[in-house]
Write a sequence for this structure.
């Protein structure tokens, strides 16, 4: 069995603060735009948070977030960047989801629970280790194309985020060389729970 392809050390060290800078800045954007439309606030405050996160050492929130949660997934960073840009443009952050999107969110939530059980050694198969294998990557790449099956989906930027995350993972192997880490992390997993709950409540 060949050794898994891992990202370069310098790339991992760069991704950790850069990824968390995008995530934290996006969170600040989403919070700020709910209370004010002042451009100095909705643009300036997230920029300051991003610059703070990029600082080296223990003064940066990325240092502590990295210790607790490691690096964010590629997909989380792309989703946060897209949501922040929509909010800054005055658009809707959460569009009406189609069945493929809701199905993928449900699959991701179930996968997260299975990975959690794997971490606790409660599964007969080492599910996390499968994320280093090429066949699993091929399956994930195929599944991420499902949102494009919706009508006019190819015209929406959000429909390309999943394939783009896979492409970046193939090119850079970030954040750990494991495809599960590229597509899912604890914060994204928890966020998907809330997303599915909101979908259920809106349809009820």
């Amino acid at each position: 069995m060949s050794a898994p392809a891992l990202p370069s050390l310098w790339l991992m060290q760069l991704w950790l603060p850069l990824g968390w800078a995008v995530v934290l800045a996006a969170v600040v954007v989403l919070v700020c735009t709910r209370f004010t439309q002042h451009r100095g606030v909705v643009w300036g405050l997230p920029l300051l948070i991003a610059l703070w996160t990029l600082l080296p050492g223990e003064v940066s929130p990325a240092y502590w977030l990295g210790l607790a949660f490691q690096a964010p997934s590629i997909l989380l960073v792309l989703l946060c960047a897209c949501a922040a840009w929509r909010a800054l443009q005055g658009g809707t952050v959460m569009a009406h989801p189609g069945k493929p999107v809701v199905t993928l969110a449900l699959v991701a939530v179930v996968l997260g629970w299975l990975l959690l059980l794997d971490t606790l050694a409660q599964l007969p198969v080492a599910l996390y280790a499968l994320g280093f294998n090429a066949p699993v990557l091929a399956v994930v790449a195929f599944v991420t194309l499902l949102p494009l099956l919706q009508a006019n989906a190819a015209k929406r930027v959000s429909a390309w985020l999943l394939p783009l995350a896979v492409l970046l993972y193939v090119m850079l192997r970030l954040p750990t060389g494991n495809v599960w880490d590229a597509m899912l992390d604890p914060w994204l997993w928890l966020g998907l729970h809330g997303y599915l709950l909101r979908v259920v409540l809106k349809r009820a």
Q: What stands out?
A: The chain has ten helices and no strands. The longest helix spans residues 9-32. Residues 148 and 156 are 9 Å apart (CA to CA). The chain has a mean pLDDT of 90.
